Amino acid sequence: MGWARKEKLTLDFWQKERLKIWYLAVCDSDPAKKDILAEKYPDVPFYDNYIDMLASGDVDAIITCVPHYLHPKMGIEALKRDIHALVEKPAGVYTKQVRELNEFAATKPDLTFGIMFNQRTNPLYQKVKEIVDNGEIGKIRRTNWIITTWWRPQGYYDQSAWRATWESEGGGVLVNQAPHQIDLLQWICGMPKKVYSNVKYGYQRNIAVEDEVTTLLDYGNGATGVFITCTHDVMGTDRFEILGDKGKIVVDESKKVTIKRLHKSESEMSDNISWADAAKIFRGASMDDVYSEEVIEFESVWGAQHLAVLENFAANIVDGSPLLAPGSDGINGVALANAIHLSSWLGREVELPIDEELYLAELNKKVEEEKVII
Amino acid sequence: MGWARKEKLTLDFWQKERLKIWYLAVCDSDPAKKDILAEKYPDVPFYDNYIDMLASGDVDAIITCVPHYLHPKMGIEALKRDIHALVEKPAGVYTKQVRELNEFAATKPDLTFGIMFNQRTNPLYQKVKEIVDNGEIGKIRRTNWIITTWWRPQGYYDQSAWRATWESEGGGVLVNQAPHQIDLLQWICGMPKKVYSNVKYGYQRNIAVEDEVTTLLDYGNGATGVFITCTHDVMGTDRFEILGDKGKIVVDESKKVTIKRLHKSESEMSDNISWADAAKIFRGASMDDVYSEEVIEFESVWGAQHLAVLENFAANIVDGSPLLAPGSDGINGVALANAIHLSSWLGREVELPIDEELYLAELNKKVEEEKVII
């Protein structure tokens, strides 16, 4: 549902690979798209109303390529009619609506409900998650992701009135570009308990929403984190560091993973070494006695794994293969993005889960303020 | 004044190089040191009371190698007697006492008043400062320093009762290890206007003071920053990134400086490129049309520049050469460290300059609480 340039890829893929499994249909409220589609894909039925499509009996599963606010509603309408649903990221704009989607989906356990977190299929991040899950770097003490490779010039925002508004998009870099990393961060390292943020709205771009985010995370067990993103760094940095009590992982440019594994946990080292002996280690210049280092290089595959998510989604329907990105996981990234917004609006640290009603009320204020400015 | 292991170096230096300029004297309240000194340096007068030494007429200049709390008082007593003063870092524990020192020093403009910020003599940081001061990376948008190479095992803290207590040291990593980087950060990038911090006290070490610090800086003009330090990362990271609207500097391990200089400012690029053309640049994989890159490697010289500060201090006295680290600069690092403590104690963002009386009252509370625990 919804057919933009990005979805061309998806459509071609389904046409070539998956027609044997599923019959394909497209729905879009823009009548111009009907003609384009009729020419390019004459066999594919077109609907201008998604409820009609869902009721037609033509479709077994849908993908929601529509504005973020609509994902939960369309997801529910599909599941209601026993149609499998793959929602695009983010799962929605505010957790209240995503919670409704999740709660409804829970009543339909036989249906497949997924989310397009294509970066979860990236072998690099799968490897990082495996190392953390295996306890190879021990208990996490600190996370740190600077992800400023989301450069967008003013021309990007000026493409359509829909972009970068509170009313239509519900936010900026947090809801449009960075949801991948926000999901990966919580997927690999877990959800923080508290969030404090410094968010700049329309800082380097003429937009109402945020183009710069600096966030301090507190995991509630002593561990802390920092998450930084923006759309105004044309020489963007992508550096993700995870410190554990038994090791450290540094991911550079989503390509190179450096893993340092301590021979003994840091706590054990601290408890059993004199300062004089510690100083000797550092003077010795070699850290081989302290930790081993492994470096793994990956091909860069940002944005190339939509197909892998589709395959995994289809496989779950067909043979029950486990979903890499269950739809219900989508609420975590939305909760984190909402907490980051809310902290900046209130000017203080907020606890998770945040007050959903308060968030929605504050979001609606932004929508109203924006109308006045326009 | 004060003679610990570290000062051996200083003493040897003065003995070998500077006796022609100055006569040397040592003062320490520990009588055991008198005997050691008499054996090693029989010609050097020893005083067990610093006021006696200052009044003796034997000394023209002093260095305060004493607990942090005493730096301002001893500095004032020296200057009062027209004796030049080089204070160790930090200038003091709280800004109120450092302000008194600065105010008194201002009444003695003919005397040399310096501070042992030896890292200011590091050619790497001098180069970084030069690039920023020249405007080569434009107006600063973000600063980010992860400096966790200050590993200290429990044995370090257990060496003496003086260490890592509120009463004697007045803090942990912020007042003992990280003042170098706190000074360099403000020296190169300026002072922030607001600070929010998440500080862990006795997190991974059995101490009353902080061993982990995560700080969010706001420069009041849109620019933000992050400063992270701790003493429990044996595989410590030292990565300093400065983003400007015309370039970016990344310093790795205090050894390698990578400078990216944009051909046009980011704002100009953003205003004059369509999204389609921007996408082409990224697909082209080469960023040569966007920026040039320079990499400069330096020898690691952490901790090796005390002598350079001493020489600069002496040169200022002798021939008026400009001071690299004027004593009055010391208050900035103390103000920043105080703001970081205070934000964590109050659980909210604080503005600089902070309320000095409030800080001192809160610090004194910590001193009292610590006594009860002991």
Automatic annotation (TrEMBL), chains A, B:
Lineage of origin: Bacteria, Bacillati, Bacillota, Bacilli, Bacillales
Protein name per the record: Gfo/Idh/MocA family oxidoreductase
InterPro entries in alphabetical order: Gfo/Idh/MocA-like_OxRdtase_N, Gfo/Idh/MocA_Oxidoreductase, GFO_IDH_MocA-like_dom, NAD(P)-bd_dom_sf
Location of the Gfo/Idh/MocA-like oxidoreductase N-terminal domain: 23-108
Residue ranges occupied by any GFO/IDH/MocA-like oxidoreductase domain in the UniProt entry: 125-249
Organism: Neobacillus pocheonensis
Entry-linked Gene3D superfamilies: Dihydrodipicolinate Reductase, domain 2, NAD(P)-binding Rossmann-like Domain
